[in-house]
Each structure stands twice: as structure tokens, then as C-alpha cells.
Amino acid sequence: MDQSALIERISTLSQLLLNNQQQLAGIQEVTAGLKQQLETAKQHNIEAEANGSSDAATRVIELQRETRILNHLIKQYEATIEVIMTKFRLQTVRGGVGPNSKAKAKYADEADRKLAAEQAANEELRQENIRLQAKLQESIQVMRLALLAYDDADPEGLAQATKTSLIHTVVTNE
Fold first, then answer.
1. Is this prediction's pTM over 0.70?
2. Where are the coiled-coil regions (predicted)?
3. Residue pLDDT, tens place only, 105-147
4. Do 90 and 2 meet the contact criterion of CB atoms below 8 Å apart?
């Protein structure tokens, strides 16, 4: 995954985290409201006990149960969000974000192997180029000697210079 896609993914997950935190704050407000209702119900319960009303007591018990359930749900929600974010952070640090991380790692390894093979081939070609340049220089030297011998108008000198050059080339190559 390239860096821009990773940054976009982190941004998206950060936005989701922010939305989840806002929802959590809303749930906490509802819980606070229910607690306040519970306190009010307790007051009514005290008054109802004094008056003998059982409807208020039933309402208080229901509110207490709802409060416990909501508190439990909030704790589960917070724990789930924390687990998700921890896993995401670990994957981000390792560089393996997304379902294709193994395939991407395999692709990167293959690309590295191909690069190494290309570099080795380039080195071989460079060595061959150096060898061919040396041969070319030798050939140019032979031609110069031949021209010098020809300019002197000495056909015997030309033949001798050519033989000497060729012997030198053969000995050098071996």
C-alpha cells in the first residue's frame, strides 16, 4: 500500500474513531439522564413508601436495571474500540495494512529479486563493454601501425608490422 493510501486509510479510521467517541459521549449523556431519573425515582420511591405506592418502586427497579445494562454496554463498546484501534496501530507500524499485505510483501520481494538480477546483468554487460573497448583500442593500434608502414611505402615493413601486431594481440588475449 502506498503512502497516500495509507494516510487516507488512517484518516478514515480516525474519523470513525471520532464518530464513535461522539456516539459514546451521547450514550454517556443518556446514562447521566437515566441516573438523574433514577435519583428522582428514588425520591419518589421514598415518598411512595411513605404513601404506600408500588408503581414508583417498580419504575425505580426498571431504571436501575436499564442503567446497569447501559453502563455494561458502554464498557463493552469502549473495550471494542480500543481493541480495534490497537490492532490498526500495530498493522500500521508493521506496514501491513489491509487484506492484501501478504500479496504486497510477495510482490515487493519479487521486485527486489528482479532488480538484483537486472543489476547482475548490467554488471556483466559493463564488463563485456570494457573488454570490447580494449579490443577496439588494439584494433586501432594495428591499423595505425599498418598506415605508418604503408606511408613509408615499404610493403615488407607493412607485412612485418601486421604480423607483430597480430602476435601481440594473440598473446595478450591468452
1. no
2. 108-142
3. 777 788 888 988 999 999 999 999 999 998 999 888 888 887 7
4. no
**Phi–psi pair at 11, nearest 5 degrees:** -60, -45
46 domain-assigned? yes
What one-character-per-residue DSSP string does the chain give?
A: --HHHHHHHHHHHHHHHHHHHHHHHHHHHHHHHHHHHHHHHHHHHHHHHHHT-SHHHHHHHHHHHHHHHHHHHHHHHHHHHHHHHHHHHHHHHHT--STTHHHHHHHHHHHHHHHHHHHHHHHHHHHHHHHHHHHHHHHHHHHHHHHHHHHTT-HHHHHHHHHHHHHHHHHHH-
Residue type, 169: T
Split into its structural domains, the chain has a count of 2
Other CB atoms within 10 A of residue 118 CB: 10
* Pair (28, 85) in one structural domain: yes
